[in-house]
Specification:
alpha/beta, binds adenosine-5'-triphosphate, four-stranded antiparallel β-sheet, single chain, ATP-binding
Amino acid sequence: MSTDDHAESTETTDAETTPTAGASTDASAVTGDLLRVQGLDAGYGELQILDGVDLDVDSGEYVTIVGPNGAGKSTVMKSVFGLTTYMGGSITFDGEEISGENPEEIIHHGLGYVPQNENVFSSLTVRENLEMGAYILDEVPQDRLNEVFERFPILEERQQQKAGTLSGGQRQMLAMGRALMLDPKLLMLDEPSAGLAPDLVDDMFDRIDEINESGTAVLMVEQNAKEALRRCDRGYVLVQGGNRYMDDGDVLLHDEEVRQEFLGG
Ligand SMILES: Nc1ncnc2c1ncn2[C@@H]1O[C@H](COP(=O)(O)OP(=O)(O)OP(=O)(O)O)[C@@H](O)[C@H]1O
């Protein structure tokens, strides 16, 4: 278990990113070969929210970020995608420094991002939304479109329907499908279960598992922390804009301190 006073301190120590022995899978072997965030400071305008955040995602890994409301979880993802004010630290993706780049540039590296809100164009059809997902390419990649339809058959059925008429679950699938159109190496999902009826939440998590099992790394922010930690390889607990814990999902899930403080006992 990795703990520290990071919420109160801006100093980065080895302890906060180095898990203790006994992890159920090998969290200590993480290299951050796909995404490596080191000492990230970022915020909105002059307002600093993130204070020295460290985060790694390896190729093919499934990583989740949990933590209390307002901790800065969404801000981490937005910052990786170039949507906040970059204030310091380093973000490398697939070996290239991307800190300070804008989303148009970042998407070319193979990073997909599904924001929590306004993640589809309501007035466009399902198919048009998916085609928009590949807007950086000269032509819509038919093989990708077919793969998305295979993964989410309901989107093929409803391809001529306006996205605004879809149910919450279908809209979420469309948002993920859109991000998958460019076959990203890493798919970042902000609260994919938010607003879904309870009986749809499991289905959504199953689909995310499948996306990850097909080789796409996943970085997910979730309020549904227990389920997210159960499903992921590794998790981070973020508090007040800084890392508080990092370890394998199962280890965090069963850690007494994490359970009491962040998982409702
Ligand atoms: N566009 C913005 N401008 C200014 N402050 C913002 C903006 N977006 C978020 N914040 C602030 O940044 C802090 C972190 O917000 P963020 O949404 O990243 O937290 P979170 O951990 O994802 O929380 P939640 O689970 O409630 O979504 C909060 O204090 C929030 O009010």
